[in-house]
């Protein structure tokens, strides 16, 4: 029922939602102008792409070399290529472990660096303004949208039960 009445419920708090979007847009544009002067480009860097691809590629190569090497060794223990493939496979497995370790350390350092950035006083005020606008919107949505809808549903449900009650 609520899904079918979603547009009507949401429309009751439309002015507050428009105000919330405007405040959030202003806060985002204030952060965007400061972040653009930072000199960092958006998007994935080459190091990030390598950090993601290296373990996958090393692991795939290790699995292929080890599988082919051990299958050749099972087929004929005298084949010299089998031991070379197995050695290469174990080297790629070591490369996989090393690249996973480097990726995890870089991820940890990135998380620590981003967590240590504290917002300035202006950013804190803007964040509080966004939070207040969001709280106002949610309160209006609850009071003018959801509560009347639920009251109407309850009245409709109780209306069907009234004929069963004794006077």
Characterize the structure shown.
Helix 2 (14-36) packs antiparallel against helix 5. By secondary structure, the protein is mainly alpha-helical. The longest helix is centred in the C-terminal third of the chain and has 41 residues, at 121-161. The protein is elongated. 81% of the residues lie in helices and 0% in strands.
Report the order of strands and helices.
HHHHH
Assign a percent range to the helix content: over 70%
Structural class: mainly alpha
Strand content: under 5%
Instruction: Output mean pLDDT.
Output: 83
* Major sheet attributes: none
Please give the structural blueprint.
Elements: H1 6-11, H2 14-36, H3 46-75, H4 80-115, H5 121-161
Helix pairs in contact: 2-5, 3-4
Throw out a few tags for this protein:
167 residues, mainly alpha, 0% strand
Q: What's the short version?
A:
The chain is built from 5 helices and no strands. The protein is elongated. By secondary structure, it is an all-alpha fold.
């Amino acid at each position: 029922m609520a899904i079918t009445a979603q547009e009507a419920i949401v429309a009751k708090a439309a002015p507050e939602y428009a105000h919330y979007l405007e405040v959030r847009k202003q806060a985002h544009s204030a952060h965007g102008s400061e972040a653009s002067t930072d000199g960092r480009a958006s998007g994935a860097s080459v190091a990030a792409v390598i950090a993601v691809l290296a373990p996958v590629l090393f692991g795939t190569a290790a699995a292929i070399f080890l599988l082919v090497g051990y299958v050749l060794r099972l087929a004929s223990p005298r084949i010299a290529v089998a031991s070379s493939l197995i050695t290469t496979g174990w080297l790629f497995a070591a490369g996989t472990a090393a690249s996973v370790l480097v990726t995890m350390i870089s991820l940890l350092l990135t998380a620590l660096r981003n967590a240590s950035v504290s917002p300035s006083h202006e950013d804190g005020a803007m964040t509080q303004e966004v939070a207040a606008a969001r709280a106002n919107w949610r309160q209006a949505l609850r009071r003018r949208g959801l509560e009347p809808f639920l009251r109407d549903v309850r009245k409709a449900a109780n209306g069907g039960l009234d004929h069963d009650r004794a006077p």
